[in-house]
Amino acid sequence: MGGYLDHLAVERGLAANTIASYRRDLRRYTQFLAAAGVRGLGEVAESDVSGFLAALRQGDDAHPPLSATSAARAVVAVRGLHRFALLDGLVPGDVAAEVRPPAPARRLPKAIPVESVVALIEAAGSLEGPRGLRDRALLEVLYGTGARISEAVGLAVDDLDRGQAVVRLAGKGGKERIVPVGSFALRAVEDYLVRARPALAAAGRSGVRGGRLFLNARGGPLSRQSAWAILQAAAERAGLSVQHVSPHTLRHSFATHLLDGGADVRVVQELLGHASVTTTQVYTLVTVDKLREVYASSHPRALS
């Protein structure tokens, strides 16, 4: 198992959190096999792998039943382990190849209307002083680029090329992508850099030049948790339900509004940094729902 995890970290470049999840899943798998009297990967049968999947979904005294999403992740880890063992010549065949992970229920991303996005950004910028300029710039960047919150707070000053109107985002697995930045976000960031960041930087050791783009009140890097709190506070001031505003709300809204405006799904895939277009296509379900609603209310013979 250790060799496989090293392979994932070094060769595949998976994130540390993903490696930790795989380690937990595979530890549970080896415990399941040991309880079944299986002493090594060479003795594993396909029924053992499918039995492990069933055990994940049913749960036991030590583990609650796993959702389809969590069970699917564990099965993917197990299948990867067996494929790695086959390629490494440790086993004669891949007994896990035909065991399919359970299909998780498709959850539609929750976007908010454009007017709600505007209200959210205006509310973020309503605070007096450097914090208001920072918070507005942060939310403009999130909505203007579709960045994850972790990507936005991880930005360095030099990652934003204001001349070319693009930003370099470091996504999952260390994969970088270049994304255009709109005029509203550029203007908000310019205001923040000139009128707010120097004051925030003076409170710490970051200095005005270089370092993270978004700073906290002590001059250190703004954390993901603090960015989440900024979003929630802005939602409350804007009169939006905090239950409908999450760390991904502006990212989901970015994608949905692009598709509503006629953007190609593969372009949106590149902008979001999705490895597969299948991940992005969930947003097309949202736009189809909107088309259906417009059709039903507008076409003279849509309703009986």
From TrEMBL:
<comment type="function">
    <text>Site-specific tyrosine recombinase, which acts by catalyzing the cutting and rejoining of the recombining DNA molecules. The XerC-XerD complex is essential to convert dimers of the bacterial chromosome into monomers to permit their segregation at cell division. It also contributes to the segregational stability of plasmids.</text>
</comment>
<dbReference type="GO" id="GO:0005737">
    <property type="term" value="C:cytoplasm"/>
</dbReference>
<dbReference type="InterPro" id="IPR010998">
    <property type="entry name" value="Integrase_recombinase_N"/>
</dbReference>
<keyword id="KW-0233">DNA recombination</keyword>
<keyword id="KW-0131">Cell cycle</keyword>
<feature type="active site">
    <location>
        <position position="172"/>
    </location>
</feature>
<feature type="active site">
    <location>
        <position position="251"/>
    </location>
</feature>
<dbReference type="InterPro" id="IPR013762">
    <property type="entry name" value="Integrase-like_cat_sf"/>
</dbReference>
<dbReference type="InterPro" id="IPR023009">
    <property type="entry name" value="Tyrosine_recombinase_XerC/XerD"/>
</dbReference>
<comment type="subunit">
    <text>Forms a cyclic heterotetrameric complex composed of two molecules of XerC and two molecules of XerD.</text>
</comment>
<dbReference type="GO" id="GO:0007059">
    <property type="term" value="P:chromosome segregation"/>
</dbReference>
<dbReference type="InterPro" id="IPR002104">
    <property type="entry name" value="Integrase_catalytic"/>
</dbReference>
<feature type="active site">
    <location>
        <position position="274"/>
    </location>
</feature>
<keyword id="KW-0159">Chromosome partition</keyword>
<dbReference type="GO" id="GO:0009037">
    <property type="term" value="F:tyrosine-based site-specific recombinase activity"/>
</dbReference>
<keyword id="KW-0963">Cytoplasm</keyword>
<feature type="domain" description="Tyr recombinase">
    <location>
        <begin position="107"/>
        <end position="296"/>
    </location>
</feature>
<protein>
    <recommendedName>
        <fullName>Tyrosine recombinase XerD</fullName>
    </recommendedName>
</protein>
<feature type="domain" description="Core-binding (CB)">
    <location>
        <begin position="1"/>
        <end position="86"/>
    </location>
</feature>
<keyword id="KW-0238">DNA-binding</keyword>
<dbReference type="GO" id="GO:0051301">
    <property type="term" value="P:cell division"/>
</dbReference>
<comment type="similarity">
    <text>Belongs to the 'phage' integrase family. XerD subfamily.</text>
</comment>
<dbReference type="InterPro" id="IPR044068">
    <property type="entry name" value="CB"/>
</dbReference>
<dbReference type="InterPro" id="IPR011932">
    <property type="entry name" value="Recomb_XerD"/>
</dbReference>
<feature type="active site">
    <location>
        <position position="148"/>
    </location>
</feature>
<dbReference type="Pfam" id="PF00589">
    <property type="entry name" value="Phage_integrase"/>
</dbReference>
<dbReference type="GO" id="GO:0006313">
    <property type="term" value="P:DNA transposition"/>
</dbReference>
<dbReference type="Pfam" id="PF02899">
    <property type="entry name" value="Phage_int_SAM_1"/>
</dbReference>
<dbReference type="InterPro" id="IPR050090">
    <property type="entry name" value="Tyrosine_recombinase_XerCD"/>
</dbReference>
<dbReference type="InterPro" id="IPR011010">
    <property type="entry name" value="DNA_brk_join_enz"/>
</dbReference>
<dbReference type="GO" id="GO:0003677">
    <property type="term" value="F:DNA binding"/>
</dbReference>
<feature type="active site" description="O-(3'-phospho-DNA)-tyrosine intermediate">
    <location>
        <position position="283"/>
    </location>
</feature>
<keyword id="KW-0132">Cell division</keyword>
<feature type="active site">
    <location>
        <position position="248"/>
    </location>
</feature>
<keyword id="KW-0229">DNA integration</keyword>
<dbReference type="InterPro" id="IPR004107">
    <property type="entry name" value="Integrase_SAM-like_N"/>
</dbReference>
